[in-house]
Amino acid sequence: MSDIKKAIVPVAGLGTRFLPMSRVLSKDLFPLVDKPVIQYVAEEVIKSGIKEIIFVLSPGQKTILEYFKKAPDLEKLLIKRKKEKQLKDYKDFESMIEGVKFSYVIQKEPLGDGHAVLQAAGKVKGESVALSFGDDVIDSAEPALLQLANIFKTCSAPVLALKSMPTEKVPAYGAVAVEKIANRLYKIKKIIEKPEPSKIPSNLVIVGKYILTPDIFGYLKNAKPSKKGEIILAEVFDKMLNDGKMIYGYELKGEWLECGDKEKWLKSFFYFALRDPRFAKELKDYIKTIK
Ligand code: UTP
User: Fold this and answer.
1) What is the pLDDT of residues 50-104, one digit of tens each?
2) C-alpha dist (Å) from residue 238 to 4, 124, 199
3) For the chain, what percentages of helix, strand and coil (3-state, to nearest 5) are there?
4) In the chain, domain spans
5) What whole-number distance in Å separates Cα of residue 2 and Cα of residue 22?
């Protein structure tokens, strides 16, 4: 199990790539088959042995907290109405969140992913913590944050999750220049957010999962906002590198299911639906019939 006790999960972004839906429903609550994206993220945190989740919410965005609250009245109703199957589904969910503390901070304005993380500073004084964005899911036997926490145990420095991407896709991501030091493990040399195609440093890009050390909060506090007024986490890490700090990158095992735009979310939906024994055969047969 992991030495990391808390995970920050920012979900306060505008989600403009999902307009008009995201006007009324945060993208983290979109379903992947029959669970919202945020449940996959929370399950990954919990399976990594982390018992406290700190959501960074936008003002008025409390539905996510409601979702993770136990509902004894609903349970009683299901028992009364003899809805055994539904009761089991609900109980499975309840036991998944058993013993987990859910707390939150508010990001008043969406001033960037780094600014979102900074809002949680008061909840993690002096601790190293996990960070998982609310729209990135990793499907793997060993949960993603546990993979990172195990690396952190040996290096005691920030660890960024990495994945390899085809060259033509790298410009859409935060890319890294690296020095390989072991299987899947790298020293990060430089971070370039959305590099021009001619300036791609490697095929490794940053996934929205990290182990952060407490010094990041001082950097976030002093960070200069970008031209758009945002504090960008990748830029803050790059500043730390320029100051001679060590940052490691670990190429995650498992499948990266992105949910940040419509096409990625749909692909992730298909991934889980077509691998789900409850639906796979019927769906595959159905897809063949669509002209
Ligand atoms: P994204 O880069 O996907 O941005 O954020 P976004 O604003 O959510 O979506 P688009 O680009 O407008 O479509 C990555 C993660 O950081 C959170 C998001 O909620 C998401 O989980 N985030 C981003 C914040 O919490 N606050 C911010 O100010 C920005």
Assistant:
1) 999 999 999 988 899 999 999 999 999 999 999 999 999 999 999 999 999 999 9
2) 23, 22, 16
3) 40, 25, 35
4) 6-289
5) 34
For residues 10 and 3, the answer to whether their CB atoms sit within 8 Å is no
Biggest distance spanned by C-alpha atoms of the chain:
64
CATH, domain range 6-289: 3.90.550.10
The H-assigned helical ranges of 98-232 are: 113-118, 144-155, 215-222
How is residue 172 annotated by DSSP? G
- What is the tens place of the pLDDT at every residue in 145-175? 999 999 999 999 999 999 999 999 999 999 9
Give, for ligand 1, the residue of 9, 104, 113, 263 to mutate: max count of ligand atoms closer than 8 Å to Cβ: 113
Distance separating the N- and C-terminal Cα atoms of the chain = 49
Residues 6+ apart with CB under 8 A from 210: 130, 131, 132, 148, 158, 159, 160, 161
User: Can you list the alpha helix ranges (DSSP code H) found in the chain?
Assistant: 37-47, 63-67, 72-80, 84-97, 113-118, 144-155, 215-222, 233-242, 262-274, 280-289
Judged by DSSP in three states, 105 sits in strand
Ligand 1 pocket, residue 111 CB under 6 Å: yes
Question: Which of 9, 14, 28, 136 is the pocket-test mutation for ligand 1 (most atoms within 8 Å of CB)?
Answer: 14
